[in-house]
Design a protein that fits this description.
Distance between the termini: 81 Å
Number of helices: 5
Radius of gyration: 24 Å
Strand content: 15-25%
Strand order of the largest sheet: 1-2-5-3-4
Length: 161
Amino acid sequence: MADEINTLEDLAAATGVEPVAQEVITREPVRDELGRAYATGKRKDAVARVWIKPGSGKVTVNGREINAYFARPVLQMILRQPFTVAGVEDEFDVQATVKGGGLSGQAGAVKHGISKALQLYDPSLRGALKAAGFLTRDSRVVERKKYGKAKARKSFQFSKR
């Protein structure tokens, strides 16, 4: 084994197998005629439709300001996470309509939608958002109640006599 293998060509010559050319996938921005990016976010039972466009950082949910709709500071922080991870705070205006679920699920759905819309608007942000786990839909939902049980898994109190 005196021969050194430094390149793909050396490896192909040593093994007799030709290397397969791999394509580099370049993502294009996806925007509508108004310059907005659209995405759907989901969490628990909540579904959010999100549009983002360049602006001053104004966030509107169901026609109301973020402070009015999501009163708890934790929920507001959840909505701002994709912008801080991507490093684009106060650069995009967000308009979202969200249905179903409770406030926590709705906040998670809007966060998921914002993340997906950001990576569609600017594909270079995809790496940071994906590394933070914001592009993955959190698939945890409430387990259904089974017959003969008090709740999904809880049994009624057992009595021997």
